[in-house]
Fold:
Amino acid sequence: MTDATLGEKENVLPPPAEVEDVELYHAKSWLTHYVFSQDAKYIAIQYAGTAIGIGLVALVMSWVIRLQLAFPGAIPFIDASRYYQAVTMHGMIMVVYMLTAIFLGGFGNYLIPLMVGARDMVFPYVNMLSYWVYLLATLVLVASFFVPGGPTGAGWTLYPPQAIMSGTPGNDYGIILMLASLILFIVGFTMGGLNYVVTVLQGRTRGMTLMRMPLTVWGIFAAAVMALLAFPGLFVACVMLLLDRTLGTSFFMPSIVEGGEHLKYSGGSPILFQHLFWFFGHPEVYIVALPAFGIVSDLISTHARKNIFGYRMMVWAIVAIGVLSMVVWGHHMYVSGMNPLFGFFFAVTTLAIALPTAIKVYNWVLTLWRADIHFTTPMLFALGFIVTFVNGGITGLYLGNVIVDVPLSATMFVVAHFHMVMGVAPVLVIFGAIYHWYPKITGRMLDETLGKIHFWITFLGAYAIFFPMHYLGLVGVPRRFYELGETAFVPHSAAALNIFITVAALIVGAAQAIFFFNVFWSLRHGKPSGGNPWRATSLEWQTPETPPGHGNWGKELPIVYRWAYAYSVPGAPEDYLPQNAPPLKGEHSP
Amino acid sequence: MLVALIMVAVVAASLLFHFLSPWRMTPIASNWGYIDNMMGATFWITAAGFVAVILFMAYCLFRFRHQEGRRAAYEPENQKLEGWLAIGTTIAVIALLAPGLFVWGQFINVPEGAMEVEAMGQQWQWSFRFPGADNRLGATDALFIDANNPYGLNPNDPRGQDDILASGGDLHLPIGKPIKMLLRSIDVLHDFYVPEFRAKMDLVPGIVTYFWFTPTKTGEFEILCAAFCGTGHPQMRAKVVIESEDDFKTWLATQQTFAQSRRGEAAHDRRASAR
Amino acid sequence: MSVMGLFFILIACIALWWLARQGVLRSSFAEEGEIADFPGAELLPRPPAAKVGLGVFLAVAGCLFSLLCAAFFMRMDAPDWQAPPIPGILWFNTAVLIASSLALDLARRAADRRETDDVKSWLLVGGGCALLFLLGQLWAWRELAAQGLYASSNPANAFFYLLTGTHALHLVGGLAALARTARAAWSGRGGAELAASVELCAIYWHFLLFVWLLLFAMLAGWADNFGVICRRLLS
Ligand code: HEM
Ligand SMILES: [Cu+2]
Ligand SMILES: [Cu+2]
Structure:
């Protein structure tokens, strides 16, 4: 350390002085300003825009699925192949290309530098590359819709042998493009992920210790670390499957007889693929969930004007979840034919995760105790998140407990569970976060009335879609069924339930138009927000300009004096104290 | 105010739906009543948690909604409260996990003397095989499969000669006897699933998997495939008929053995080539 | 999967240790004021960002290779596994890679002493050896292919190509970085900046050497017993 001014205090290491100023890149032309921008804020918007765009495709796919399930065969266009292609693309896009990209690429890029008080990501050039590789991955994915045979219909899990065999739609080009696209996505993501992690480690401004960071940063940070370690699993699986498909190796492919013909494969292990896939697949759930956890903590605290309850526990819970969730992947494979003794291990680790997760839930609701709750739109979305997340979390206790999973696995119960917990809940957080940070991004408020209408339709509608769906699973309706047909064990009334769910799904989907209208309309006509409309404490609200300018902080980086949750501190003049406001008593000289 | 009410309504509606819905688990037809009991216990514990958390939240929303002049309390942490909550949750989780693991232990340990039956999956149909008089199933390999040997039995394995190949796609089983289902696939993943039996297991090409159960009800049940296996996945069905021991024996006696089927095929082939 | 398990435990330990050192155990959130005012509260100086970035990247690459090894050990079990003969040139390649790593280490030391001429020559030697290694690997591939041992003929061959290929790709990436460093050295930018960038290259090279030694041992079959132990632990 070179800072000499603090030399007198012998035993105290001086604080990291100004974080080494990142070499700020300066856009020189229109192209580097608006297209190949290296400004994290701009990249964030590019990421989020792309993710939402491709997410809309996935939304349309979900209508296709739902229409078929409610009115089997009524729409001739939806034949079995198209149905499975829709299911596959819907699941894959939602999980990887939409949620992962928007939480880490979108919110991560926008919020990390601002919240930790940095001027930009530490490697802006790599950050830009990350987006363009992601875009390329998305385009390759979209291209698979247009190749002969269409996109793959192997299910988002892409299990071999079926994924590359002729009984599956899109087994000729679709699957190759899918794997190539995933490989690209992972390469792109790794570049971004390095940035998020290193920026949190290196870019924090003076006084911003790890234990003073907003939970949003903690959540995104932990998720980025997990993603960096988990995505290689998918990468290896994709590369090996691609080789099986193109070169005819037998990593995953055993001896197979197809239509009376012996294929040239032999000896491979389909279960090996499942291990690799779920080594990624389970952490993926938390890669999506942890940023949502973090964001929701900040939304609740800000709009309830109260410090988040049990910050220390919240941080440790994030770390604990991050570590544990790397060793629970086997709960997706209880009935996969793997060594049944693994069932014991994975059931224990899985239920162990319930503990830190439950603590987080308790702390969110305890934050509301003796608070001063403002029912703003972001707050409503946060509350909706709590309901759907708790609901989805408790059904996780069914599916994690190995023996209870046996009858339920691969039924609609599973579909309902994971939609509640990693579909609806994180999406509600995304909306809440957009309502919350839109003023910072654009300088204008979103319309609150429209926002509330949007919230109630989305929340109640989504609950109406997925809560009843559990009961179809209890009856025994399997997932990934193009049509159930006549069965003795499903009562006829289930058809009515299916129609109800589909109607709800169509309404929820259509209601998103309100949101998009609001976003575009408010860009011009929204109420000007000022720099800190929610009177929030964290650093991103304290920028000298709104929207924050290039380099975020003007001349001087902020200095942090306290944690991000100094709401309603006794004795303070206002009910919030920004992180960078000098201490009240003014005793500390620099 | 309204928000709190709606949250309460969501909880109430969920509970009402649960208790009034006509969509419940199919009546059980195997010995795995334990699983149903576990599910019931899990429901009560988790539902209690759900109701408690959401109602508490609704109460806070009502009680601490913003009003003129309200200021929130400042309370960074309360380690005692957090500790108690953590302990309570741990107890609930252990209460769920311990019996669950115990039942899983039973699920994976097949009782002595269980009758072995093989189910073979392929896109998109089921076939079944019973051990013959020697009570042992012959070895198989996908490599042996051809038109004369659709099951892929090893033609040189003496244990396989008397194996009984069930025709017609139905599986008949005697009531009240533990059955060990041996599962294998010759192409992709499938999953042997009879909702009334509660148990299920994947069929994985290249290896043989298993699970066991004891049928406790006579009647016909549907076998579904519960692992996505291509466009014909929903059509991959068969029937399992649970009947009395005697009826089962009679049915079994009408089925061909592997050796008989080979002879029949061979004769057929000779005729064909003579033509 | 136990390879993965070991690797994961290692990473988790490093991460937790790091977090502890960074003050996660202290309740700085409960205190107000400049951190420097709390005795013992401030933390260690931060290493340069690029070095941390490289460290994180090595963790990712390490994860990738451990997963490949885990897959190798699991697949090895199947009866159709037939390890290909190890082409003799691999011994030579190994020696060359060790030389390359050594050369870069010498370059790093020279850069620390700011002796730019030495840096240049060691960089050349290191880069040249790395190129030679890549050519040698290519030669090994051709040798196998000439014996009819293609990727599709046996899973052991497939793994041979996959593992060596992945490793080589990483080295190619390293060469690109090395080229940038060399350009900096030749354009006369010496000093701390050059030293830092040479150091990163050296670290990366040592990592790849380490990975290669493990892979070589695995491919040559010396680790078979390890695989057996892993499987016995797990099944
Ligand atoms: C309005 C919103 C949504 C509706 C109506 C919907 C509906 C569905 C339906 C009906 C299925 C097929 C179930 C089956 O296999 O039979 C499905 C599958 C799936 N959905 Fe959604 N979904 C929605 C949003 C989401 C979101 C936000 C996610 C993000 C996590 C998601 C992730 C998935 C996944 C991973 C699958 C499994 C695909 C597969 O089986 O391969 N969905 N969805
Ligand atoms: Cu999981
Ligand atoms: Cu199937």
Summary: Chain C is about 75% helix and 0% strand. Chain C touches chain A through 58 residues (CB under 8 Å). The radius of gyration of chain C is 22 Å.
